[in-house]
Each structure stands twice: as structure tokens, then as C-alpha cells.
Design goal:
By secondary structure, the protein is an alpha+beta fold. The chain is built from three helices and eight strands. A six-stranded mixed sheet has the order 1-2-3-8-6-7. Strands 4-5 form a two-stranded antiparallel ribbon.
């Protein structure tokens, strides 16, 4: 009998975990260009796909250097966060991919304007090549703590 009850409990927990997974999509961020979601909410966590500097209105990469691209990327991230009921302050971790690590200081200057207090944990690396020859791509994880 104990084994049966344990099996029922485990099946119930698994069903609850699956029910908590939700695809998030915002019209105010670029449409996905492959078999992935803009974001997935699982419980109180939100996992965002990497964003590059695509203007959601045109579907095209924006003009400009790494500063302009970093602004657009973070605006796209904010749009997806907002769609899910999250804020930039809920971001706990980010991964920054740069086409050239020499862009680090310029990217960091813009990035700091979005994460003014309690910035998330972060990694920044140089990638051999980014989609659409972007200069920067950023992906984040956000968590609702209240």
C-alpha cells in the first residue's frame, strides 16, 4: 500500500510541475526565428531566450554600434518580462554574448543603466558568431520572490 501511495504522490507532483510550465510570447519583442519560445515560465521562474537587436516593429536588425544594440536587446528583454508580469529587477542571472570582447566596456556602460541596484549574477563571453551578425546577445533568468 505504501508503494502505491508513493507512486500516486510522485505522479501527482509530476503533473503539477508540468502544469506550471507556460510559454510566454510578447508582440512587443521580436518574433522567434527558430523552434524556441521567447520565454518559459516554470513556477516563479522565467527563462528568457537570448535576444539580439531586432526591432519588433520591423523584424530587422537595428542600425548602430554595440551601445545601440545593447539598448534594443534590453528593451526586448523588458518587453518579454513585462508580458509575463516580471520586471527588470526580477532578473537574477544573465549571460552576455559579444561578437568581440573589445565591446565589453561599451556594452557594460549601457547594461549598467538597466540594472542600477542589485544587478544580477552575470557571465560575459566572446562568441565566434552571433545570429544575424549581431554585436551582442543577452539571455536572462528572472525569479519572482514575493
Amino acid at each position: 500500500m505504501r508503494i502505491f501511495l508513493l507512486a500516486v504522490l510522485l505522479i501527482g507532483c509530476n503533473a503539477q510541475q508540468q502544469a506550471d510550465k507556460e510559454v510566454i510570447s510578447s508582440d512587443n519583442a521580436p518574433a522567434v526565428i527558430g523552434p524556441y519560445s521567447q520565454a518559459i515560465r516554470a513556477g516563479n521562474a522565467l527563462y528568457l531566450a537570448g535576444q539580439i537587436a531586432i526591432d519588433p516593429a520591423t523584424g530587422k536588425m537595428i542600425d548602430g554600434g554595440v551601445e545601440e544594440q545593447t539598448h534594443r536587446v534590453l528593451q526586448n528583454i523588458q518587453a518579454v518580462l513585462q508580458e509575463a508580469g516580471f520586471q527588470i529587477s526580477d532578473v537574477v542571472q544573465s549571460q552576455v554574448f559579444l561578437s568581440d570582447l573589445n565591446h565589453y566596456a561599451a556594452m557594460n556602460g549601457v547594461y549598467a543603466t538597466y540594472f542600477k541596484e542589485e544587478p544580477p549574477a552575470r557571465a560575459a563571453v566572446q562568441a565566434a558568431r552571433l545570429p544575424l551578425d549581431a554585436l551582442v546577445e543577452i539571455m536572462v533568468t528572472a525569479v519572482k520572490t514575493n
